[in-house]
Amino acid sequence: MNDVLILGEVKEGSLDMKTLELLGAGRKLCGDLGSGLSVVLMGDELSKAVDQVISYGPDKVYKLEHPLLRGFKTDLWVESLEQLCRQINPKVFLMGHSFIGMELGPRLACRLNTRLTTDCIDISIDPEDGVLLRTKPVSGGNAISVFKCPGEPQLATMRGKVFKPAEPAEGNGEIVDMVPEIDESMIRVESMEVVKEEIVALDKADVVVSGGAGLGEEDGFEMLDGLAKALSKSFGNVMIGCSRVAVDKGWISSDHQVGLTGTIISPDIYVAVGISGAIQHLVGMVNSKKIIAINNDPGCNMFKVADYGVVEDFEEIIPALIKKLEELS
Ligand SMILES: Cc1cc2nc3c(=O)[nH]c(=O)nc-3n(C[C@H](O)[C@H](O)[C@H](O)COP(=O)(O)OP(=O)(O)OC[C@H]3O[C@@H](n4cnc5c(N)ncnc54)[C@H](O)[C@@H]3O)c2cc1C
């Protein structure tokens, strides 16, 4: 049975490890539904990614390989997925809440006349009727709602870093080769490559030093850069994060934003400097292993989630911290 299907993502020929979280989520549903777990992979060269995904024990892997599926092209990808869904009729279809999932999910829901729930932080099956229950933050993260929608496939995009990744598993997963019927005339949205001077992969950092409105001006980030450099001598990969206010003020690019509408992270250490701890920020970093807050307001919300707090003007404490770290390294 193809009841639960997930969209695996492939990066430069290899399986994107985010797919393992979807496999974990999908496997949980299969247990409740008593159904099989299938994965669809799309691209122009998928052999390596198929071998990788099969070692996590899915029952089937749909390999949608086509020269035109090289790189992400919204129209061709959604067309290929529509063809697959019409052929195999999955009951549930899960995608990551990634750029790809956010592009494809709404389009596919519209084409298949079904409903999509985005950015889910939990999913389960209602034992009464076998329908998917989709849990997600609403009202800017101030409340959590559970949605239940008619229509199949039951389509959801899943937030990253909330599901335990699947473990390698034995299995005799079947590989199904499918060649979608697509051609260049179907391309309506062109993609272009944006070359960035700097790639910010906040979710891969061991330590994130974040600045907020409390820095007062753009120059405050120079001081945070100094702290990041000093920390990197002892703590690995250190990156600069920020609150949305810092982005809105134009002090730093949105690639650095942590939170509901930024990146969700769980580094070993998160240092929040001049950040009040609004719920939309907290949802992005509250799973960090150790949280250190520097803020001159002892009543600020960030101290409620912090493991260590320093009530002080950041301009006083950060140079002292840098000096101490340099003495110790
Ligand atoms: C739909 C929606 C989505 C959002 N998504 C995000 C998101 O993804 N990420 C995000 O961050 N926000 C998000 N926000 C905005 C969020 O609600 C807050 O407005 C924002 O997080 C506040 O940023 P801040 O803490 O830097 O600023 P403020 O709330 O203004 O806090 C500044 C802090 O700095 C302290 N401070 C001031 N001077 C100093 C000093 N000299 N030394 C030390 N501390 C000092 C102050 O005591 C204060 O606590 C979202 C809002 C909405 C409505």
In short:
This protein is α/β, with parallel strands linked by helices. The protein is 30% helix and 25% strand.
**Number of helices, counting only DSSP H or I runs of 4 residues or more:** 9
CATH domain fold name of the largest domain = Rossmann fold
Overall SS class: alpha/beta
* Order of H and E elements: EEEHEHEHEHEEEEEEEHEHEHEHEH
Give the low-pLDDT segments. Answer: none
Shape: elongated
Please name the fourth-level CATH homologous superfamily of the largest domain: HUPs
Straight-line distance between termini = 58 Å
Q: Hetero groups bound?
A: flavin-adenine dinucleotide
CATH class of the largest domain: Alpha Beta
**How many distinct domains?**
2
The whole-angstrom Rg is: 22 Å
What CATH architecture of the largest domain do you see?
3-Layer(aba) Sandwich
Largest sheet: 7 strands, parallel
Characterise the protein shown here.
This protein has 329 residues and is an alpha/beta fold. The protein has two domains: 4-186, Rossmann fold (3-Layer(aba) Sandwich), CATH 3.40.50; 202-328, Rossmann fold, CATH 3.40.50.1220. Helix content is 30%, strand content 25%. It has helices at 18-33, 47-54, 74-88, 99-111, 220-235, 244-248, 279-285, 302-305, 314-328; strands spanning 4-7, 10-11, 14-15, 37-43, 60-65, 92-96, 116-120, 122-125, 132-138, 143-148, 154-158, 174-178, 207-211, 238-242, 269-273, 290-295, 308-311. The strands form four sheets. The protein has a seven-stranded parallel beta sheet with strand order 7-11-6-1-4-5-12, with helices on both faces. Helix 5 links the parallel strand 13 (207-211) and strand 14. Helix 3 (74-88) crosses helix 4 and helix 5 runs parallel beside helix 9. The longest helix has 16 residues, at 18-33. It is elongated. The model has no long low-confidence stretch (mean pLDDT 94).
